Amino acid sequence: MGVAGKAALAYHVLPMLVFVGLVAAGEYVRPPAGRSLDVSLSNNYTPTSPQQVHISLAGDDKMRISWITHIPTPSTVKYGTSQGMYNASSTGTSSSYRYIVYRSGQIHDVVIGPLEPSTTYYYKCGYDSSPEYRDLGQTVWTRSTLQHIGKSGYDVLLNPGDLAYADYYQPFWDSFGHLVEPLASQRPWMVTQGNHEVERIPVIHNERFTAYNARWHMPFEESGSKSNLFYSFDVSGVHVIMLGSYTNFELNSDQYKWLESDLRKVDRTRTPWLFVLVHAPWYNSNVAHQGEKESTRMKDTMETLLYNAHVDIVFAGHVHAYERFVIRDYNHFSPFSGRHACTKTKLINVVRSISRLEMASFGHGQLRVVNGSHAQWTWHRNDDVQPDSVWFTSLASDSGCVV
Ligand SMILES: *[C@@H]1O[C@H](CO)[C@@H](O)[C@H](O)[C@H]1NC(C)=O
Ligand SMILES: *[C@@H]1O[C@H](CO)[C@@H](O)[C@H](O)[C@H]1NC(C)=O
Ligand SMILES: [Fe+2]
Predict the structure, then answer these.
(1) How many domains does the chain have?
(2) What distance in Å separates the CA atoms of residue 298 and residue 280, rounded to the nearest whole number?
(3) pLDDT tens profile 21-54
(4) Which atom of ligand 1 is nearest to the CA of 87?
(5) What's the gap in Å between 241 CA and the centre of ligand 2?
(6) 279 is catalytic
(7) Stated pTM of the model
(8) pLDDT at 401
(9) Are 283 and 351 in contact (CB under 8 A)?
């Protein structure tokens, strides 16, 4: 028996629960980083056992299944709608990568489908037995956050970057894969890249995002993008755009042109909600990470596009603290043209004035899309319940700009 998983799909069916982010740590009273978990890979797997299984959405009615084996094996997934009855099968591809002296296992990539909406599918990948689940990980905070997320029956997890914090040490990518497998093999995990995923060392390893791109293949081809670093997808009345903070975002860039065309294609009668994820936040009143070009320059370049498209919510990562802004009010009172005249200090003050809440805590957020017009966001700290909660109404029919 291979790894057996259960994937539930919720296409075009509301309500939906979306999780955003894995870890936020405090800036002002940063909680201790947390004990690192044991990441040594004492291996109980056979060389052909599937490991680090995770799934992601791949087009309107398909799922991508990814896993790793120590040696090359066929990339085949068997699946079906009843447990133990895998009457359909798909075959994909596999590859591996080198990073200095590290050589990855064989990374398998198989797309299954078409799948029926609102149906639970059971699948297994590979042939071999892999009975052992090993709870490895990065820090005790990560594990705590994952345990909280696991309890809540979500449909899709969205992560705005900084996944494994491998920071050049490739075995941490593997331990992260093991850590998230119990959740990521059950529900789609949709991610974008953070600065910790770049992993470029001039001269020694010039390529950027080697491990990230090899291990976390997102549906960029399906969304007409040329790069795994920016893409979009639809799920349950929501169009989600994943932007890349660490790839070119200037006016003449592939990313900017792709974003323009992707926004043009959005049909708010079909997807009344429009969310954007980006790693480096465009608004941030923390002292940390002020003035980084991935924040300021990217905002100056792309914000008007998002604003005019009536994007409902932008989620960001990077700063290890929770903060929520109300941007539309801000834009209402202070048109873009005026903002460029602000000094940096003034700007931080303005940003503070639109900040509704900030707190130093580890946790995750849940966005419950109730229907086409209402969604509720709640922030969940690992230590206690729901310190922040807010209702959104879709901007789909908003008449827009006020300038
Ligand atoms: C697989 O089995 C289910 C019943 O368990 C059936 O409804 C479905 O049509 C079968 N699919 C194929 C491809 O045979
Ligand atoms: C959507 O959900 C909100 C909140 O539960 C409710 O007040 C509203 O009537 C719902 N709208 C529709 C069209 O069902
Ligand atoms: Fe970051």
Answers:
(1) 1
(2) 9
(3) 433 333 333 444 555 555 444 456 788 889 999 9
(4) 1
(5) 25
(6) no
(7) 0.85
(8) 36
(9) yes
